[in-house]
Amino acid sequence: MRDTKVLSTPTMPGPAITIENLSKRYTIDHQRANGEGLRHAIEAAIRAPLDWLRSSRQKKIQQVDFWALKDVSLQIKQGEVVGIIGRNGAGKSTLLKILSRVTVPTEGRFRINGRTASLLEVGTGFHQELTGRENIFLNGAILGMTRAEIIRKFDEIVEFSGVEEFLDTPVKRYSSGMYVRLAFAVAAHLQPEILIVDEVLAVGDAAFQKKCLGTMGSFAQSGRTVLFVSHNMEAIRTLCQRCVWMRDGQLHKDGKADEIVEAYFNSISSQQSFSCSNPDYGLTIQKVVLRNGRGEESSQFFPGEDLVVEIYYDAHKCIEKPIIALSVWGVNASCFSSNMLLDGHRPNFLEGSGKITCTFKAIPLLPQNYTVKMNVESANVRDLIVPYQEVAGFSVVGDLAEYGYKGEFLTYARRSTPVVVPYEWRLPDGTAATVTLAKKSTLVSR
Amino acid sequence: MIAKTFAAKPVALSDAFATSSPGQLLIEAGSTEKQYWRDLWRYRELFYFLAWRDLLVRYKQTVVGVSWSLIRPLLTMIVLTVVFGKLGKMPSGGVPYPLLVFCGMLPWQFFSTAIAESGNSLVSNSNLISKVYFPRLIIIVSSVITSFVDFLISGAFLIILMVWFRYVPPASVLFLPLFVLLVFGASLGVGVWIAALMVEYRDFRFIVPFIVQFGLYLSPVGFQSSVVPERFRFLYALNPMVGIIDGFRWCLLGVRNGIYLPGIVIAVIDVIVLVASGIWYFRKTEQSFADVI
User: Fold this and answer.
1) What is the ipTM of this complex?
2) Does the first or last residue of chain A, that is N or C, have fewer Cβ atoms within 10 Å of its Cβ?
3) Domain A2-25+69-115+192-267 falls in which CATH fold?
4) Is residue B41 part of a domain?
5) Residues of B in Cβ contact (< 8 Å) with A3
């Protein structure tokens, strides 16, 4: 509501992006999955009419409409930096795809005012066989730069990427880090008035991510409009003033970044039932429940408490040796994980309904908000039976003073690196201090 | 909440849509046609870049490199000369048989590589299609241009061949650009059709090699179209490559048997229909490429 007032003030610059009732429908055709091709069209004609009737009726049953985006309206002012958050499948990427004109809306319309560049992926159009130099030109052209522009900015791009020495090496010989750096360097020099970015920070090492964020930050400060999807809540919080939270293809909440991110975390924590199913594998994850060490269902934990993740499943078909991985994420990074791919302790098969539990012992986490993400892969690691996504959320609460912390800036704990491995200070005067997030009782007995 | 906001302010919103200036972009469900041709112009440099990429990549990690675009037609010419000229004893119309064959192969090779390459082009660029916007027609035209470069190389080789056989082209060579345009149109028309169909029906990946293989024999590449019995000639000329190859021979060699005029007229009509219908179908399906591919 607050935003509405701002929008209607006559002195404000015109909107950069105006979106009105945008919807996108996908028709999911299950039959397609196994036999894509002309076959249906031709087969239907060649086979007996009876067969054709039957098969066409079957086909109808298996076509499912899916609204990836439903009636989204939004107005973004010039110079605004807007973050878009939401679970996987909430419609964030679809929205960006439509705004980037990669795909067309089924209903509704939007207007963009200004030169736009969209970055749905880092390094789109890079060709493995071409050298770094050649790829700069190719990628630049694909992203909408003119040749003159690329030539003008070439040196800057190379310097930014830091791959001078390998400029004439085919990019297939690059390390993935170099590849991403070069790709981002090209994109960073697009200099549009409106920038649309989809989760590009998910790649690259920490230093690179920082550089990306820095670039986007300075971009935002120069008064340009940025629309930015990320799962990195800290990035959203630092970069964006405004945040849009999408849920089930709809605009769920819109407001100040801090508030929306907070609300998002709270909703994940309080959400009771995550569920999803994969018809191809006949697997349904009915719910994911978090319990504390005493077996009580909870979304609030104390530092040093046990975290029990229970996955309730129902497998219609037998799934052999699935690989399940869980990871616990803080606001800006993953903290720790349990991964069957790594430890090899996989169930021989899943059939019928049951429960898989994973207990994280004495979680060494500072009071912050966390999410639990999960994926399930097939035995050959080829298929994602359950795609990587958030399945639960929790917050760690507690007074750090009770754990022996005595700093004056305990509120800083919300922004610190979340995991605390027990450590010990030895000071010049000979005193030693152990810091641990183990249970309070342990501290007392020391 | 935001939905309510917009419901409460319909006036403000429609104002935003009503004022239009050149820097603005308005996309509505189902109407992007006007914008399309403007974009095609805006992205014109991409024609060049994509063709440049394909040319650069084509002969990477090959030993003889660009020579391949000479070796291929040369070997085919030898084989066809031996099969049709020496073994089949087809009439040559007083022209050295290798020249006759090469003048047929020039447009044919261009056509066949162009439809194969452009037919595959959308699918092999699917990463671009699902991540960046630009008029997709550029991809197709670029791959036709790539094949056209091979055509030019072969054309240069034809000049060497003509010098070798001491053959001076007749005055009708002035009409050659017309037939080059025709074969370009035919390649583009068929290429656009196949590319658009391939996005949804990958079957065309198997169909195209058949077209190329049979087409070589169905078109007068290894022989003159005059060997076809007169009563079948019209039917035969429905294949646009018949008129085009005849035209090439007439321009370059001035084949004496005379030119079959209806064949050329049919070729022109064929090409116009192919290009127009191809672009129509392409535009119709293009919007869903990113969703289907």
Assistant:
1) 0.79
2) C
3) Rossmann fold (3.40.50)
4) no
5) 5
